[in-house]
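Input.
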Amino acid sequence: MSYNKNPGDVSLRKMKWLLLLLGTLKIPMIGFVRPKLLELNDETSKIRIKLRRRSKNHLNSMYFGALSVGADVAAGMHAFYFSKKMGRPVSFAFKSMNAKFLKRAESEITFTSNQGDVVKAAMIKSKEIGQRINEPVEVIATDNSGEPVATFILVVSVKVK
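Output.
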């Protein structure tokens, strides 16, 4: 999903716009919980989801589905980011997810992935060999006090076209 006229030209503003379009047009669940892109660079992706009516469960903590969306977006934004930097379309999906819930998420949650290098390496390898590459990516969800509430390991599957 790359339609970049200027390969290598990637700004946070453009990526926020891409996330909004993705949530509005392609994946309505993302649009429903309204994740906000806080940071995106070669190494780090940070997403925030506020605790509100759309993301809460009956215990007034963040619903499992909203936590999953946050992990998905935090890990997946690097694929879009490097696709735009390379100027090449990429097909990506998640093959599996392992989640460990450490405590109730009772505030807005920040999802952080510091494994941009893993996604980039997978995309470069996919481009070289022309096949789909699978790599695990870790995402850590923290609350307002900075305490981890959950950890996720998602296996991202990428193919650069």
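The CA atoms of residues 39 and 46 lie 5 Å apart.
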